[in-house]
Amino acid sequence: MFLLRLMFVASLFPLYASAGSLSGVNAGVTPYACTDTGAQYLLAYDSHPKRQGWGAFGGGPKGDETARQTALRELYEETNCVFDKETLRTLKLKGPSKSGRFYSYVAEVPFFLLTDISAPRTCRDVERSQWIWIPHESLIEGLNRADSSPVIVIPGQQEFRFPLWRGAAKSLRNSLADGFLTVGDPCPRSDF
Q1: Mean pLDDT across the stretch 110-137?
Q2: Domains along the sequence of the chain with CATH
């Protein structure tokens, strides 16, 4: 079974190798930040009537943007321009995974408090107004549920629940299956 999976992944390599030159495609980024408690994934609430749930960042191209350019511009816009353009330009994107007509990357980003992300600034095309950092373990547990629109649960004294919209869940699961989003936490912990 492992050999079949390896052969399947190898057969997809040309797709991933050429994805940087793809233009005119929908693309996005699942950003994570390394913190003292491990990886935290930044998600945003999408209030569109067909979605109404939490997910990563992405959308359609402008002009002849490549998949990478589209993904980074969407991350910039949908996070209220909290990440400066130079930081985004130097991100090491993992991927992409293909989910239908959507190409999804995973990237480590600097950590910002949610109050910093939502602070007023002059940013155009901001489509999101609610963000949350999700712990790695909670995200993976949620994606491993059988639901097409799983609920991410953050345990604690007060349990918090964040339902993913169907397309976001599918894209995140494909990134997980392709190994760009990992089962193991990608960030070293500093447990003292």
Answers
A1: 92
A2: 23-177 (3.90.79.10)
